[in-house]
Amino acid sequence: MLTKRIIPCLDVKDGKVTKGIRFQGNVDVGDPVELAKFYYEEGADEIVFYDITASNEKRDIFIDVVQRVAENIFIPFTVGGGIRTLDDMRKVLLAGAEKVSIDSGAVRNSELISQGARAFGAQCILLSMQVLKVPTSKQIKSGYEVYIDGGRKPTGIDALEWAIAGVDRGAGEICVNSIDGDGTKDGFELDLTRMIAESVTVPVIASGGGGSPEHVVDVFKKTPAEAAILASVLHNREYSVRDIKSKMKSANIATR
């Protein structure tokens, strides 16, 4: 039986981990390297880092942070934000990351997905999606639209169609972040997560809204998601990774 993964998410801005609600009102919560070490020692399965303003500010990603993290933790970690070219991917992977997360760059240039998969293997390519619930239309049949540039800009792209297309182009994993749920701690967007996870052939990570061990149990019991991203609830020390995994074990959900 495949174990379900718990993945702390570290949004980094100006060299500090930060967290807001629906991408607004961000406050600093700590040093990215120290927090990565803390979650590694807590038993996190993986860690994901997002340079949350790199795409919007059209600048390169924080390679120095990636290198320092690689020296201090010994679990897989993913890095995203500002990755626009194959060379950007190469720099991140050579600095020590196991995967790259592409989001806005992939929307603007979908060939980036297939180029990365061919060069580094599909297992290195995580397609991250910032998704907002919207009224259904001819263009957005699923009722969920992809946004880019840190959730600031609508694209007119249907989230379900984009997830399927991303996998067809070579993405080895999909991260579905609900903008509606982001930072609210009100629970994962189960309908969105289930819809995408049931429609693609690669692992899907649920993100946005996780606020308790019960929310994690829900997303694993009620959707085929293989991993859950948590941020605020961990950063604020409301629950620990150990608390989450203990609840999962009590609910007979396989975990490390």
Strand content: 25-35%
**Overall average pLDDT:** 91
Amino- and carboxy-terminal Cα gap: 11 Å
Architecture (CATH level 2) name: Alpha-Beta Barrel
The side-by-side strand order for the widest beta sheet comes to 1-4-5-6-7-10-11-12
Q: How large is the count of helical segments? A: 11
How many structural domains? 1
What is the rounded Rg?
A: 17 Å
Helix-and-strand structural type: alpha/beta
User: What are the low-pLDDT stretches, counting only 5+ consecutive residues below 50?
Assistant: none
CATH class: Alpha Beta
Helix content percent band: 25-40%
* Beta-strand segment tally: 12
Choose one word for the global shape: globular
CATH homologous superfamily name?
A: Aldolase class I
Main sheet characteristics: 8 strands, parallel, barrel
Q: Sketch the topology as an H/E string, one letter per element.
A: EEEHEHHEHEHHEEEHEHEHEHH
